[in-house]
Write a structure and sequence with these properties.
about 190 residues; alpha/beta; Rossmann fold; seven-stranded mixed beta sheet; three-stranded mixed beta sheet; 12 strands; nucleotide-binding; 5-formyltetrahydrofolate cyclo-ligase; NagB/RpiA_transferase-like; FTHF_cligase-like_sf
């Protein structure tokens, strides 16, 4: 019998959502501080001047302190805006002005740039539910990042931002899933390919 990757993904996503929701305040605070430091190190080591990021939802790894830090240092940050066609537009922002997007996720308010603006950043930091050791990224099922990344001929390095426990031996993969070049967690940076 051929495994149904869609069913496997839904089950794994449900488990990961539950884990994220049951994290304690102490765990969240510790991960927020550690992740901010790891993201700062990533940017400094690679001399990043422009980066694509996202506005984290309450259960996601909290990138907002890092966003504030990047803005204070003059790093250009592009933040995603969801489109009806399944792609992402982008806007330069500091996260201070936001609204609720198509799926209730926070989105930046600003001048909308086309998806092509993503090609001008030094790195893309993408949200994820989990990443396998082979670099396969599993998102939350809407396909925005897979479509956007899959449409790029020459894309900057892409790193998924996840909690340490979401770096798994493997995740279910479907043909449309786009691999990432590495992961950033509260405790480490791992590069799969350069």
């Amino acid at each position: 019998m051929i495994p149904d990757r869609g069913v496997e993904k839904r089950a794994l996503r449900a488990e990961l959502r539950q884990r994220r929701r049951t994290r304690t305040t102490t765990e969240r605070d510790a991960d927020r501080a550690a992740l901010t430091g790891t993201l700062q190190r990533f940017v400094e080591e690679r001399q990043v001047e422009s980066i694509a990021l996202y506005l984290s939802a309450p259960d996601e790894p909290d990138v907002r302190p890092f966003l504030d830090w990047a803005h204070e240092r003059g790093i250009r940050v592009l933040l995603p805006i969801t489109r009806e066609d399944g792609l992402l537009d982008w806007a330069v922002g500091d996260g201070a002005s936001e609204r609720e997007g198509l799926f209730g996720m926070p989105e930046v308010v600003g001048e909308v740039l086309s998806p092509l603006a993503l090609g001008d950043v030094d790195a893309i930091l993408a949200p994820a539910a989990a990443v396998g050791r082979d670099g396969v990224r599993m998102g939350w099922g809407r396909g925005y990042y897979d479509k956007t990344l899959g449409s790029m001929a020459n894309r900057p390095p892409v790193y998924a931002v996840i909690f340490d426990a979401e770096y798994l031996e493997e995740v279910p993969r479907e043909p449309h899933d786009e691999p990432v070049d590495g992961i950033i967690t509260p405790s480490r940076i791992i590069t799969f390919r350069s």
